Amino acid sequence: MNVIEASGLRYAYPDGTLAIDGVDVTIEAGERVALVGPNGAGKSTLLQVLGGLVEPDSGTVRYFEETEDADAVRDRLSVATQDPSDYLFNPTVEEDLAYGPGQLSLPRSEIDRRVDRIAERLDLADLRSKPPFRLSGGEKRRAALASALTVEPDVLLLDEPVSNVDAANRAAIVELLSELSAAGTTLVISTPETELVPRVADRVVLLDGDGIAADGPTREVMTDAALLADCDLRPPQVVRLFADEEPVPLTVEEAKERLRSPDDISDGE
Ligand SMILES: Nc1ncnc2c1ncn2[C@@H]1O[C@H](COP(=O)(O)OP(=O)(O)OP(=O)(O)O)[C@@H](O)[C@H]1O
Ligand SMILES: [Mg+2]
Q1: What is the per-residue pLDDT across 7-26, written as a single tens digit (0 to 9) for each?
Q2: How far is the CA of 83 from the centre of ligand 1 (A)?
Q3: Would residue 56 count as lying in a domain?
């Protein structure tokens, strides 16, 4: 099933800046898609249009093959925008985390269960009673992500979910996203960081400011140095390091595996 079908999207900001023009993208249920591109390429604008937060000047976005009304699918689709403050407006972190499921009229016990679980996973347990505006940048990012996750949507649209986040929490978020994906959640993740892409996406939609420069498997797009350079991006470090290998490892784990079992050593035993 196509959870999002967008065609002919165009959006110009009120000051006249044309952010996206002629964008077509279809996301199937269960996919992990990264929207990748340099600063100003239109990733955030596209993510907000796909999430129904910004109405395009032209073009359409259809959800779950049944409606063009994003508000009708708010319980099935959640967006975390680039600025975490957009999603943190309650007096405490805990209330922000409970806000989304509260809107779904779930029983209090279920809301508490979700808040407890996500707060624990994203290392927010000690920050629950703090006002969100008193959090650090990375803490705000995690709190905003957590409040999108407590909705437990079928489709998650996340704008730079690990920006400002330290290594341990970044790993926790990547692992949580993998678990959600394994459980069937569709993920659309925007990032300018090519290092992150192989960990969170199987497909890349590459934006270059003029539209979609490429749309294909992560392995193909993330190993095409010339294509990425045209978009002011570079392949992940391991890809550059192992550029002559076939197939090129995309992550440190894949590279370690390659070093452990080089092609020229036969496992003849
Ligand atoms: N509120 C705004 N008003 C006017 N122009 C805007 C506004 N927000 C973004 N833009 C412009 O729209 C274009 C696309 O911006 P967008 O935020 O979608 O890029 P992005 O790919 O998310 O970049 P980044 O990696 O920096 O987050 C840019 O040229 C930007 O300057
Ligand atoms: Mg952005």
Answers
A1: 999 999 999 999 999 999 99
A2: 12
A3: yes
